[in-house]
Amino acid sequence: MFKKIFFCSLFIMFLFNCEKDDICLQGTPGTPRLIIRFFDYNEITIPKSLSNVTIKALSRDEDYTVFSGDSLAIPLKLISNSTIYTFTYLNDLGDQEKVDTLKFNYKREDYYINRACGFLSNLIFTTPAVEIMSKESLFLDFNILKDTIKNENQAHLAIYH
């Protein structure tokens, strides 16, 4: 009998001892991704889509994305101050492949949310923000639209091709 009372009281104490900081709510935002918009190099205000591009982070062996469109959201590494992505294009005939490599440079600004959710990072572009590492790149220029990546509501970077 004593054991039942002990375990019931222990369970009740555990149940009522939880605080709101013990659970990270589902709507709590995480670290935002980099939002890139692609534009025509000759008409810099006109969005220009990319099609059938394979995007891969060099730090990961298995993760890649096949992309088509004029807007892209990609995660940046939080354990370093740069992330390198490769963009692989196939020509219209599908027989010739072109690989572009971009390096994104940034610094982290961490801030505490609560005990359950931990920290959230804002990323701030450093100089140079983007390095085009390919000799003959499809990407001709870029423009920083927002120097701090705080949310995913608007584009942070414009790339011209």
Describe the 3D structure.
It is a single chain. The chain is mostly beta strands and 161 residues long. It has one domain. It contains one helix and ten strands; from the N terminus they run H-E-E-E-E-E-E-E-E-E-E. A six-stranded antiparallel beta sheet has the order 3-2-5-6-7-9, with no helix packed on it. Strand 2 and strand 3 (64-69) form a beta hairpin. It is elongated, with a radius of gyration of 22 Å. The model has no long low-confidence stretch (mean pLDDT 85).
Range of helix content: under 10%
SS content category: mainly beta
Strands, total number: 10
| SSE order, one letter for each helix or strand | HEEEEEEEEEE
Spans of 5+ residues with little confidence (pLDDT < 50)?
A: none
Q: What percentage of the residues does DSSP assign to strands (E)? A: over 45%
Distance between the termini: 77 Å
Mean pLDDT: 85
| Radius of gyration computed on alpha carbons | 22 Å
Major sheet attributes: 6 strands, antiparallel
Question: What's the arrangement of strands in the largest beta sheet?
Answer: 3-2-5-6-7-9
Q: How many domains make up the coordinates?
A: 1
Shape: elongated
Counted by DSSP, the helix tally is 1
